[in-house]
Amino acid sequence: MAPHTQQLTAAPAVQLRGLTRSFDGRTVLDDIDLDLPAGQFTALLGHSGSGKSTLLRAIAGLDHEVVGSGRLTAPERVSVVFQDSRLLPWRRVLDNVLLGTNGKDAAEKGREALAEVGLKGRERAWPNELSGGEAQRAALARSLVREPELLLADEPFGALDALTRIRMHVLLRELWERHRPSVLLVTHDVDEAIVLADRVLVLDRGRIGLDLTIEAPHPRSYRHPLLGEYRERL
Ligand code: ADP
Ligand code: MG
């Protein structure tokens, strides 16, 4: 079956109805309805303070104040990645990836996830021995090992330099193509949103002000002529 046919028939991974969130009487999210189809890569743009993180936290089920004001349906297995890796500094990289997992093949899956993000051989490293990009790779491995149906990422590359960010774009898009979770990537970087996502939402004054589908052919970074021949060496 062609991917687009699957998307049309699949039930949405996330269904949000009437989500309102206020802080101290100030409305940040104003009666938001949103569907994220299963397996879709969506980016959420908006200026600083527009409520992107608030919306992501609500979808992640991390915001108990919104419960009751709206209705949320989300998958069982949700992974969240933040701007900082949130690795525990006193645990080795593999142990960070395995945190909260169990089962006899957990360690093997952890090693596989680390290999997938390009950290083979770094299993026993300490978090403070990793570069910023490597730490985010480890954070992605930690999210992958849970086999999430929904991956939420809040400006995961915001603290990285431009070249590392491009490498991470390549990696994230490849991981998505291999595992096909629904992705909601929060970013304030317009290029990042267009390069990575198939759909771009813009949060503005508490509402989804714009909902764009990015049509193929697509200017994805890893297919970009400027990158193509250099990609292997990046
Ligand atoms: P973004 O991620 O788009 O930069 P946020 O979702 O972090 O924006 O914040 C949206 C608005 O809500 C901001 O004005 C912020 O100050 C406010 N806000 C977010 N979380 C809290 C909180 N826990 N308490 C009070 N105000 C908050
Ligand atoms: Mg934010």
From TrEMBL:
InterPro entries: AAA+_ATPase, ABC_transporter-like_ATP-bd, ABC_transporter-like_CS, ABC_transporter_ATP-bind, P-loop_NTPase. Its EC number is 3.6.3.-. Residues 14-230 form the ABC transporter domain. Signal peptide: none annotated. Pfam families: ABC_tran (PF00005). GO terms for molecular function: ATP binding; ATP hydrolysis activity. Gene3D superfamilies: P-loop containing nucleotide triphosphate hydrolases (3.40.50.300). SUPFAM superfamilies: P-loop containing nucleoside triphosphate hydrolases. Keywords: ATP-binding, Cell membrane, Hydrolase, Membrane, Nucleotide-binding, Translocase, Transport. The keyword Nucleotide-binding applies. This is Aliphatic sulfonates import ATP-binding protein SsuB. It comes from Streptomyces olivochromogenes. The gene is ssuB_2.
